[in-house]
Amino acid sequence: MQDKDFLGYFGRLELISTKSDQENIAAIKQSSTNIINTLLALTTKVGRKRSESQDSKGEKEDKKEKKKGADRTAAMMQKYSTGDLGKDMTPDLNYTIKRLVRGLTSDTSSTKKGFFFASVQVYARFAQQINCFKLLQHVVKLTKTSKTNMKNPEINALNMGQMLTLSAVVESGLCLQIQNQHDTLMLLGKQLVTIYEECQYLRESVKMILEKLLVKAKGASSAPQLMKLIVKDLHIDADNNRIKMSHPDHVSMMLSL
Question: For residues 238 and 218, what is the distance between their CA atoms, to the nearest angstrom?
């Protein structure tokens, strides 16, 4: 990550209570645009060279301050830049994706709106570089919860974060990429149904995401299997091999689909 302003763009995705809704929305849109433009610049030799040149100039101007910032950035970059979310994924894009997911799983509610908007924009713009199936696997692993060693607020934040990330994947159309499309749609459907069953407070939101997913995927070859998975998981008791129609929310869900 060579652009010294890049990390600051993520901080500006957070809602500021002292600003009006219009000011916050404008700031979120501008920060998302800055993130995308920086990523585009860093994928070109000219952009990378210019960014490195600016970094070098900054070091000469204030070496001590630069070193302190570099040490903090290096530690954070080591955390986010490892791993592979696609064969064409650059370290900068890899960092961005993981940073956006982290923002959505944060227990700070003021960050979610901005990070969701940025996620949709980044997923849509860089769909050819991102492996959606690997992204979903990363999200599932990151948001795994445990009732034995986690408190309810942490569990709720992770479940909400997973739902928002899955929603961004659907909203952006990233889930429809040809590569691993069947596995992607099946995993996406399975995770949404799991959230629907386990998190009653998120059911209405998950219902809307599932509806949008089925509309977007209707032309895909895996659409029938996706619908079958949703129906089966919501209505079949795997342990007793019986239809489970006891909860009215499940009936309402299937009628709407």
Answer: 27
Tokens at residue 92, please? 């900068």
Please tell me whether residue 193 adopts helix, strand or coil conformation.
helix
What is the distance between the alpha carbons of residues 127 and 175, in angstroms, rounded to a whole number? 9
Structure tokens given for 257: 């689909």
High-pLDDT (> 70) share of the chain, %: 73
Decide: 210 and 257 in contact? Cβ < 8 Å: yes
Evaluate if pTM is beyond 0.85: no
236 strand-pairing partners: 243
Buried (b) or exposed (e) across 59-68, using 16+ Cβ within 10 A? eeeeeeebee
CA-angle at 92, arms to 10 and 43, nearest 5°: 120
Maximum Cα interatomic distance, the chain, rounded to a whole number of Å: 71
The band of 223, judged by pLDDT with boundaries at 50, 70 and 90, is: very high
> pLDDT of 30-79, one tens digit each?
999 999 999 998 766 434 444 455 555 555 556 666 666 666 666 655 65
pLDDT at 140: 95
* Measured distance CA(54)–CA(64) in Å, rounded: 16
**pLDDT for the residue 238:** 47
Beta bridge partners of 243: 236
DSSP 94-138: HHHHHHHHHHHTSS-HHHHHHHHHHHHHHHHHTTTT--HHHHHHH
